[in-house]
Design goal:
By secondary structure, the protein is an alpha+beta fold. The protein has helices at 3-14, 26-29, 35-43, 87-95, 108-115, 121-125, and strands at residues 47-48, 50-56, 59-65, 68-72, 77-83, 97-102, 130-133, 136-139, 144-156, 159-171, 178-180, 183-185. The strands form three sheets. A seven-stranded antiparallel β-sheet has the order 3-2-6-9-10-5-4. A three-stranded antiparallel β-sheet has the order 1-11-12, with no helix packed on it. Strands 7-8 form a two-stranded antiparallel ribbon.
Length: 196
């Protein structure tokens, strides 16, 4: 707004006239669908199931996620979505390193354990073969894992996007565990192992 228009607007406000309406913002004019409808849409997205782990102050932390994707090959970057307020997210920020584990089709129990809000961190890791790689707890026996160094963390709504630079990687063989329509699933066609 130039100085002359601002002066006219200021005089109108002093005279008791209502202020001019703000410029239209089409994104705010549309209320959009409710959260339940959006969650219904999101449930139709088929995704691989992963467990993200990081080292907390009192030991390893981890959570099950279905929002993991490759971001870049050069440099090697992964993108992970973590729930706002989670202890795993806090550890990823504090330690600047985390591990991403892609689960096998037969690891539904492990996925459920790391997803349950009633399960403590110690219970989540109980009975798992875990070692530390570059400071991050790594679970053995998964389809594949990578250890990432935290590049960036940004909040969007009720989740944070975490970008990690892949620093170590292991790829095994087998079928991936999938998440679709609020339940676990698997591929029905044979999978050629392409371990590398």
């Amino acid at each position: 707004m130039n100085a002359r228009l601002r002066l006219v607007a200021d005089r109108a406000a002093i005279a008791g006239a209502p202020p001019p309406p703000p410029a239209a913002d089409p994104l705010h004019e549309e209320p959009g669908p409710g959260a339940a409808r959006c969650l219904g849409l999101y449930a139709k997205l088929a995704a691989g199931v992963a467990v993200v782990t990081a080292r907390g102050e009192d030991g390893p932390l981890g959570m099950t996620v279905s929002a993991v994707t490759s971001l870049s090959a050069r440099p090697p970057l992964l993108l992970v979505c973590l729930r706002d307020g989670s202890r795993t997210l806090a550890a990823v920020r504090a330690r600047r390193a985390f591990a991403v584990h892609l689960l096998r089709a037969e690891q539904q129990e492990l996925a459920g354990r790391f997803a349950s809000p009633a399960t403590t961190a110690a219970e989540r890791f109980a009975g798992t073969d875990t070692r530390h790689v570059l400071g991050a707890p790594v679970l053995a026996g998964v389809l594949a894992w990578s250890v990432c160094l935290t590049e960036d963390v940004r909040r969007y709504g009720d989740h944070h996007l975490v970008v990690g630079r892949v620093a170590a990687v292991h790829v095994g063989g087998g079928r991936p565990l999938l998440w679709h329509d609020r339940r676990f699933g698997t591929l029905t066609e044979p999978v050629q192992d392409a371990a590398g």
